[in-house]
């Protein structure tokens, strides 16, 4: 197959940032995706409905003229998020989920949850009003090896929370391990997962090939080849529990190429093309539409997009860097190529 037309996709996990940085990346987003679940880890984080509504307005007014894009907003869960705030969020009609960052797990997670037991009021309200919990699934205990953080999160946090809140809908975000794949497959339909393109395309060797590669550093960190194989198997399986979430997370070049570099990979410039590459390589292009455009809206109870996109198998060059307001940004595959092109 050298050409494929699918329903326009959505991105179920995206970092848009804010202000002029956001303005710099929005064209990449809107060209590909009709909607995206927008992560709330701004500085300061988006912890209230009022903040989420204001952020949404800033996104809409930063869109290039004529670009159709619908931001699906999220709240950043903290130890003090109240049930009332959750009900307000639901009533707003624009907040679609609540994001749980264990404090210290990743970029801008300092205000995250110290212990989920502090969030009973919020979690009960989310169960009642069917607002999904999006989990950054990694424990942050200092004695846990960074490559085991996700695996251990399943037993220590995820299983107990699903048991305690039997109606809570949960998206296990950006899964990276075979254990996570197995867990989601064995869970009831209220549990789903997003998978990034970079975790489908790279294993942890990519962080160290010929030297340290800061542009391949993200959280959760890349894992082993057998984990990558499990993720590919899940993504191309046609199982509706697995859907597209790029976790595209831009950082200015100098903040990644630093003695303590930021976590996050910018992929939305090829946000559907990279998935086409991996699905194509595994002869599974007919499964791309479900993963990219069907299962996400089904989980969130939203309609599918009505327009289409076409991808052709044609190599294009990724620039070495792109402008990012007053900074620059090093996109995934910088200086290399992508095998599929968006028409
Ligand atoms: C994200 C970011 O930069 O905001 N970084 C990342 O490595 N994925 C945060 C996150 O999703 O963990
Ligand atoms: Zn993220």
Ligands in the model, by name, code or SMILES, are: N-carbamoyl-L-aspartate, zinc ion
Secondary-structure element string: EEHEHEHEHEHEHEHHEHHHEEEEEE
Helix content: 25-40%
CATH architecture: Alpha-Beta Barrel
CATH class type: Alpha Beta
CATH topology: TIM Barrel
Query: Which strand-content bin applies to the residues?
Result: 15-25%
Unreliable runs, pLDDT <50, ≥5 residues?
none
Radius of gyration over all CA atoms, rounded: 19 Å
Q: Describe it for me?
A:
The structure is a single chain. The chain has 343 residues and is an alpha/beta fold. It has a single domain, classed as TIM Barrel. Helix content is 34%, strand content 17%. It is built from eleven helices and 15 strands. It has helices at residues 19-32, 49-62, 83-92, 120-129, 149-164, 178-186, 197-201, 225-235, 253-256, 273-281, 288-300; strands at 3-7, 11-14, 35-38, 70-76, 95-100, 133-135, 170-172, 191-195, 242-244, 308-312, 316-317, 322-324, 327-329, 337-338, 341-342. The strands form four sheets. An eight-stranded parallel sheet has the order 2-3-4-5-6-7-8-9. Helix 3 (83-92) runs parallel beside helix 4 (120-129) and helix 6 runs parallel beside helix 8 (225-235). The longest helix has 16 residues, at 149-164. It is globular and about 50 Å long. The mean pLDDT is 97. N-carbamoyl-L-aspartate binds next to loops.
């Amino acid at each position: 197959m050298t050409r494929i037309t699918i329903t326009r996709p959505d991105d179920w996990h995206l970092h848009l940032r804010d202000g002029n940085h956001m303005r710099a990346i929005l064209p990449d987003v809107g060209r590909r995706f009709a909607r995206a679940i927008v992560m709330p880890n701004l500085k300061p984080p988006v912890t209230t409905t009022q903040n989420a509504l204001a952020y949404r307005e800033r996104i809409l007014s930063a869109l290039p003229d004529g670009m159709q894009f619908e931001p699906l907003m999220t709240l950043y869960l903290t130890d003090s998020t109240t049930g009332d705030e959750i009900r307000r969020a639901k009533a707003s009609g624009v907040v679609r989920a609540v994001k749980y960052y264990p404090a210290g797990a990743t970029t801008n997670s300092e205000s995250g949850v110290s212990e989920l037991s502090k969030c009973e009021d919020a979690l009960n309200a989310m169960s009642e009003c069917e607002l999904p919990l999006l989990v950054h699934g990694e424990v942050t205990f200092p004695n846990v090896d960074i490559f085991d953080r996700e695996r251990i999160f399943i037993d220590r946090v995820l299983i107990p929370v699903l048991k305690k809140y039997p109606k809570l809908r949960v998206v296990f975000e950006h899964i990276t391990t075979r254990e996570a794949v197995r867990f989601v497959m064995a869970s009831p339909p209220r549990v789903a997962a997003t998978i990034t393109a970079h975790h489908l395309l790279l294993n942890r060797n990519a962080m160290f090939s010929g030297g340290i590669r800061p542009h391949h550093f993200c959280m959760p960190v890349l894992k082993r080849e057998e984990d990558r194989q499990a993720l590919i198997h899940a993504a191309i399986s046609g199982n509706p529990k697995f859907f597209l979430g790029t976790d595209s997370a831009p950082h200015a070049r100098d903040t990644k190429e630093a003695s303590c570099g930021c976590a996050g990979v910018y992929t939305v410039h090829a946000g559907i093309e990279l998935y086409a590459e991996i699905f194509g390589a595994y002869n599974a292009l007919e499964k791309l539409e479900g993963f990219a455009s069907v299962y996400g809206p089904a989980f969130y109870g939203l309609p599918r997009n009505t327009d289409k996109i076409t991808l052709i198998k044609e190599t294009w060059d990724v620039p070495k860097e792109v402008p990012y307001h007053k900074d620059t940004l090093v996109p995934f595959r910088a200086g290399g190529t992508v095998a599929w092109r968006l028409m």
